[in-house]
């Protein structure tokens, strides 16, 4: 399999992955994919691999941030009930 076909397969897989992601998780994935793609491009023309890795990391960071916000919201709610 030559390089162009590999790039097409990876791009198609990334597109399908983005289409399957829910909208809440897509924001982290898209931001991460953009940053990872740019970084991968400048690190030796590996933009697709960088975008896939960035999507994974972005999804993880967005999920962690959402969990932290939910915990803060729950703590505020518990504090209001106790006063």
Automatic annotation (TrEMBL):
<keyword id="KW-0732">Signal</keyword>
<protein>
    <recommendedName>
        <fullName>Glycine zipper 2TM domain-containing protein</fullName>
    </recommendedName>
</protein>
<feature type="signal peptide">
    <location>
        <begin position="1"/>
        <end position="26"/>
    </location>
</feature>
């Amino acid at each position: 399999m030559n390089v162009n076909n590999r790039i097409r397969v990876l791009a198609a897989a990334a597109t399908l992955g983005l289409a399957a992601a829910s909208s809440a998780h897509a924001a982290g994935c898209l931001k991460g994919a953009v940053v990872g793609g740019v970084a991968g491009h400048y690190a030796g023309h590996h933009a697709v691999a960088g975008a896939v890795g960035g999507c994974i990391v972005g999804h993880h960071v967005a999920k962690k941030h959402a969990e932290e916000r939910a915990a803060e919201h729950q703590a505020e709610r518990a504090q209001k009930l106790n006063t």
